[in-house]
């Protein structure tokens, strides 16, 4: 090799080293990721036993260790019974789920959508139905026939984060649900917040939207932190949608992204990207946050996110490595609808051989693989 130029010598070293580096990457696998999770709506009361069976038969054996349950108002709240859905989970129903989580080594994290997602399509959410004074945009009517886009820019309503009474109510719910689920963390949602700092709001109008968002995240975090609990949120509002080109759904186009430098670093970021495995986990980790990559219905995206997390944990600096916590599948249907699709898919060999199927249950099977013996 003495006749090689320095440039060619360096190339030879890199080529000879490549098997070593790829071998390092192969030493890590999905089971090495600290978080292997799923986020899904809590089951309806009549579906609890079926969901518990799924936890025992599928989540545990496949090595999942985190379950984020969107509870919202599907619980028999004692603090605010006026906010309950018509049919709700009882404390004994929840304890069945908690027991299944315990025997399968699964961390339970209940979720209530805070700030945004206070309406959906033509339906107002329970909080604003019962407390219309909390509405950030009371001048925007919920249409009988919802369409997007619309003149009001209405996707989902938000509550006003500066209303003096809103946290007395929502924190009662948070405390109650964290207690019944025996959880040490709570997921506050906080995604897709399009209504914030509305100019017609007497409290928020004219204020910095990033400061408003950061203030709400910090207020929720501080409330939980005082009890030794941790806050998890979706990460889209903390990404600059214009600079990155990611846009208004998986990132922010209303300037909330600057809140990333205003919130406590112990907030866990669930970084969801459904069309591509965007590399924003690196940004969150560089800012000092623990981050989880989240997929949905595209199996290839979910599998690439696993590969990314393994690579980050292998090749980043030791200061950065442990901030890349793992991956999580998100499901945006009810629990029963997901289980129906999963059972049909796993029982039909022809479906399982169709690599182009885009459904969350396909992502679940492809990402989390076969059951661990």
Main features:
373 residues; alpha/beta; TIM Barrel; 8-stranded parallel beta barrel; two-stranded antiparallel sheet; 10 strands; 38% helix; beta-N-acetylhexosaminidase activity; Glyco_hydro_20_cat; hydrolase
What this model shows, in words?
This is Glycosyl hydrolase family 20, catalytic domain. Keywords: Hydrolase. InterPro entries: GH, Glyco_hydro_20_cat, HEXDC-like. The protein is α/β, with parallel strands linked by helices and 373 residues long. The chain has a single domain, classed as Glycosidases (TIM Barrel), CATH 3.20.20.80. Helix content is 38%, strand content 14%. It contains 13 helices and ten strands. It has helices at residues 6-27, 48-59, 91-103, 126-130, 166-180, 209-225, 241-244, 280-286, 299-315, 318-321, 335-347, 349-352, 360-368, and strands spanning 35-41, 66-70, 107-114, 119-120, 123-124, 185-189, 230-234, 268-272, 291-295, 324-330. It has an eight-stranded parallel β-barrel with strand order 1-2-3-6-7-8-9-10, surrounded by six helices. It has a two-stranded antiparallel sheet with strand order 4-5. Strand 4 and strand 5 (123-124) form a beta hairpin. Helix 11 (335-347) packs across helix 13 (360-368). The longest helix has 22 residues, at 6-27. It starts with 5 loop residues before the first helix and ends in a 5-residue tail after the last helix.
């Amino acid at each position: 090799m003495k006749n090689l130029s320095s440039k060619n010598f360096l190339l030879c070293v890199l080529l000879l080293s490549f098997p070593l580096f790829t071998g390092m990457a192969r030493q890590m696998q999905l089971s090495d990721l600290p978080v292997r999770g799923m986020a899904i709506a809590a089951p309806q009361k009549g579906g609890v036993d079926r969901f518990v069976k799924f936890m025992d038969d599928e989540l545990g054996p496949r090595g999942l260790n985190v379950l984020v349950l969107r509870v919202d108002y599907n619980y028999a709240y004692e603090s605010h019974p006026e906010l309950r859905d018509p049919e709700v989970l009882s404390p004994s129903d929840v304890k069945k789920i908690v027991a299944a989580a315990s025997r399968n080594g699964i961390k339970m994290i209940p979720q209530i959508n805070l700030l945004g997602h206070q309406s959906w399509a033509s339906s107002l959410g329970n909080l604003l139905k019962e407390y219309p004074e909390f509405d950030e945009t009371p001048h925007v009517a919920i249409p009988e026939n919802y369409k997007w886009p619309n003149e009001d820019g209405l996707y989902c309503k938000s509550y006003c984060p500066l209303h003096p009474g809103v946290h007395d109510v929502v924190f009662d719910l948070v405390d109650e649900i964290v207690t019944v689920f025996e959880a040490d963390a709570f997921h506050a949602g906080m995604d897709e917040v399009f209504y914030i700092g509305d100019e017609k709001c007497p409290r928020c109008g004219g204020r910095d939207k990033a400061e408003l968002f950061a203030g709400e995240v910090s207020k929720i975090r501080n409330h939980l932190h005082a009890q030794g609990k941790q806050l998890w949120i979706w990460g889209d509002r903390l990404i600059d949608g214009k600079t990155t080109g990611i846009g208004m759904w998986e990132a922010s186009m209303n300037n909330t992204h600057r809140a990333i430098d205003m919130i406590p670093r112990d907030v866990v970021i669930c970084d969801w990207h459904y069309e591509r495995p965007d590399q924003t986990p690196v940004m969150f980790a560089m800012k000092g946050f623990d981050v989880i990559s989240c997929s949905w219905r595209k199996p290839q995206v979910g599998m690439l996110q696993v590969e990314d997390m393994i690579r980050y944990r292998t090749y980043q600096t030791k200061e950065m490595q442990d901030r890349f916590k793992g991956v999580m599948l998100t499901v945006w249907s009810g629990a029963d609808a997901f289980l129906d699709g999963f059972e049909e898919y796993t029982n039909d060999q022809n479906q399982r051989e169709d690599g182009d199927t885009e459904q969350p249950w396909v992502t679940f099977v492809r990402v989390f693989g076969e059951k661990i013996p």
